[in-house]
Specification:
By secondary structure, this protein is mostly helical. The chain contains five helices and no strands.
Length: about 130
């Protein structure tokens, strides 16, 4: 009886644990692969990434560095679209200025990074 209870509690806790590990791992990926050009709360070489899921591609009015190709692309960023773009930036938006820099070969790196972006965590931001 006691074991069954412990099992039930573990089932309740485990999904939460898995996703917080995911966002931590995603934070490391962001640090290693995106931070040179991006922040969550401000534009840098690349546009700010806060609230990226649900935002139309190439649509920030205060970011002036978009390529014509990204500006004229017609989709809204979803988990799936971000996953596709990070796996193959130029395959998703031919002519993008973010050609190889943000390319992530590893699917779990992409998944964890997307989970991190959804948290809105700005603690790594370098905004001057
Ligand atoms: C070398 C600099 C650089 C790096 C590194 C980089 N990016 Fe970018 N990113 C850019 C630039 C420049 C643009 C604008 C591209 C364009 O307009 O074609 C951009 C655009 C984007 C966009 C589209 C935003 C919008 O407003 O539609 C997303 C999403 C994005 N980057 C995510 C990432 C992620 C996630 C990483 C890390 C895995 C990353 N980038 C790494 C420079 C970079």
């Amino acid at each position: 009886m006691r074991f069954r209870l412990i099992g039930a509690i573990a089932c309740l806790i485990a999904p939460g644990l898995a996703s917080s590990q995911g966002t931590e791992a995603g934070k490391d990926v962001f640090h290693a692969k995106c931070l040179a050009c991006h922040a969550i709360s401000c534009n840098r070489v690349g546009p700010k990434l806060g609230g990226i899921i649900g935002r139309k591609v190439g649509s920030l009015p205060d970011f002036e560095g978009y390529s014509a190709e990204m500006k004229s692309a017609e989709f809204v960023w979803s988990d799936e679209k971000l996953d596709e773009f990070l796996a193959d930036p130029t395959g998703t938006i031919p002519g993008t200025l973010m050609a190889f820099a943000g390319k992530l070969e590893n699917p779990s790196d992409r998944r964890n990074l997307i989970e991190f972006l959804k948290t809105g965590d700005t603690s790594l931001d370098l905004c001057f």
